[in-house]
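Technical appendix A lists one of the benchmark inputs used to test multi-chain prediction within the project. The record comprises two sequence entries:
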Amino acid sequence: MIKSMIKSKLFWPIVVLVLILLFNLFFDRGFFSIEVRGGHLVGSLIDILNRGAPLMLISIGMTLVIATKGIDLGVGSVIAMSGAIGAMSVAGAADDSILPLFTAIGLSVGICVLAGAWNGLLVSRVGVQPIVATLILMVAGRGIAQLITGGQITTVYYEPYSYIGGGYLFLLPFSIFIVAAVFAIAMFLTRKTAIGLFIESVGSNPDASRLSGINSKNIILMVYIFSGFCAAIGGLILSSNVASADGNNAGLWYELDAILAVVIGGTSLMGGRFFLMGTLVGALIIQSLTTTIYSVGVPTEYNLVVKAIVVLIVCLLQSPEFRKRLTGAFGSKKGVKSTKDKGVTLS
Amino acid sequence: MQNQTPRLAMEGIVKEFPGVKALSDVNFQLFPGEVHALMGENGAGKSTLIKVLTGVYSIDGGTVTLEGNPIHVNSPLEAQELGISTVYQEVNLCTNLSVVENIFIGRQIMKKGRIDWKEMNRQADELLKRLNLNIDVTKLLSSYSVAMQQMIAIARALNVQAKVLILDEPTSSLDRDEVNQLFDVIRNLQKEGLAIVFVSHFLDQIYEISNRITVLRNGEWIGEYMTKDLPRLELVEKMIGKELNELTSISKGKGDEVQTEKRESFMEVENLSKTGNIQPFNLDIHEGEIVGLAGLLGSGRTELARLLFGADKPDTGEIKIKGVKKQLNSPKQAIANRIAFCSEDRKAEGIIPELTIRENMILAMQGTKGWFRFIPKKKQIEIADEYVELLNINPPNPEQLIKNLSGGNQQKVMLARWLITNPELLILDEPTRGIDIGAKTEIMKLMVSLSEKGMSILFVSSELDEVLRTCDKIAVLRDRKKVSEISNKDHKTQHDIMKEMAGGM
């Protein structure tokens, strides 16, 4: 029982997450307390979930892209685009009508899905390497976002818009429900239809997949579109949360955090098997890390360095080889024995 | 020539890998000024022998002497320093560097701590002139043809004071004119007294350029012959082996021969070709017929099979299935027409290593169903269990990752993947390669019983006895061309097929 738990891909990420959360207890006795205030649940944990929502969303999309041996560097810019489109289209709207809200959502999601399709077409039909193809959108998308906002931060005074990222439903932040819904859609599509199997097979061995009659081009196109969709919603949440459109900084470096979350979650950058649940935990690790660094009072300028160190530790902990060495260094015989078992195989 | 001392002599060479004897007691001698062809089918041990000689692998037994002195080669670098140079099949150069950079990479001529370009250009020019090549050495390698690159690779190999030059399939990507150009160079080097080892699958070329032939089979030394004294047919026999485990239990009931003629045609192929892969050919495959594709390695067997499956696009010709003209532009279309193709390259084109046995099995079937008509997990498990038992797959656990299985069991999973799609034409490309005798027999029995149920099978194999035992009709390929079609009736023997495979008589 315990053994199978340790073998599970989720084990180490969860251990790390729990450690980070426990670490906070030293500095803030009330870290785990959650109370009802003004009809909302309030507490640090809720806060992490709420603030981590955009990252969790785009990491879900990123997971599928990475499973096909691809990568999507454009998501940060798509977040900026989505936020800019959403906020600008409701900028002058009156509070009493709810229609502009849906126009905003429709416009953002529609355009960002097109952006994802653009990436997908470049990769699957034109044959551009994913990292190059999505780099184009990474640059262009932010440029478009800046054009839309005119390079300014535009504040939105339209109340319904801020519900997406700042509203509450059944005591909980609304954004958590959005994440849950998108996660459920992703889980359904990949585990209850054949799409998950095809994604894994295309990522693991594209030639063999083609010879098995799988249209890998459409699979690849689909994951980039989905990634664009996730980034669109993430962008709406972010911009709605601060009730403004910021083409310059919204979603900056999010693509890198998302890639990290995916890798921490156990999905290999070499494609193949993917772990959506692991990705969620990975995203939460990164978010709690950020929150912790702020709440512990590390000066802001140390933020990135501390984050890098912790991420390095997480990645090392996940490597079976490193753990073996670590236990080997403490004199355990386990490590020695298992290296002996590795026979040389003829290929 | 025989009285000379050999420049290189390898005696009683043994090389073992865990569980496999790759070379056992192999001899090889090489005289100055000769081109010595090393022949053998896949897995014969040619490349192992070359790797042993060039220090890629260590030797487990036997001696190597170079110009009378025993040597121990521990690394490719050492081999080069001793004067043993190799040019590999794939041009091993950097196309984005200049010719001169490629020739001197790793051993640049230095002057006062800086690279002496003038001297290097001069020496490169000189080297290439030796090969009768007059080209601008400062241009990028990519600006020259593949043949030229191949020769530049030879120049690079000669740059060190080479005594022995090994050419491993140097002609596989060259056209006829380029081959001639290369052969001129080889003859020049031969005159200079260089000892050359030549590995190639093209019989014509072997007979054109080589003086002497050493044949290996299954890691064993079969013999050494003067090329002019060894007829082609004998060479092929020696490469393939003659042990006729004559038609035994699995032999197909020959009583239904007459019926074969009457059976409906499943696929008619006319004039199908792809430049550089296979010349135009015709082929008829009837329902319930097992058609064998025989030919030496590199004769175009796989290339032909891939065209029938839509894995490659043909340049000319057409395919009719049950009398209706079809375009097979992708495997997906071929599968929709009930064709299945089990690739010979299991690793690269067969298994999905990260997935389980079950997932690998249902992949092609799910491919036909598309994204949303997902085969329920329960059904998947049922199918997987059934085929694990039917094909005797070990370990009998469908949730095991396929990459952990042995070659034979992986092959069975591949078979299952295609049988599950219930094809009308099953193309099996070397399904028995690299698997043990027991599994081989099982697979052949299965083929026969499937054909009796009406499935057509195209059986590509280099094992002639297997082809003879199972096939109704055998198409023979040579040098990327279909040369004949033999009906397997009147007690054909391996000899008959070999004659066609060797040709040139």
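The domain at 259-338+423-505 of chain B is CATH 3.40.50.300 (Rossmann fold). Chain B has 18 helices and 22 strands. Comparable benchmark entries are summarised in Table A2.
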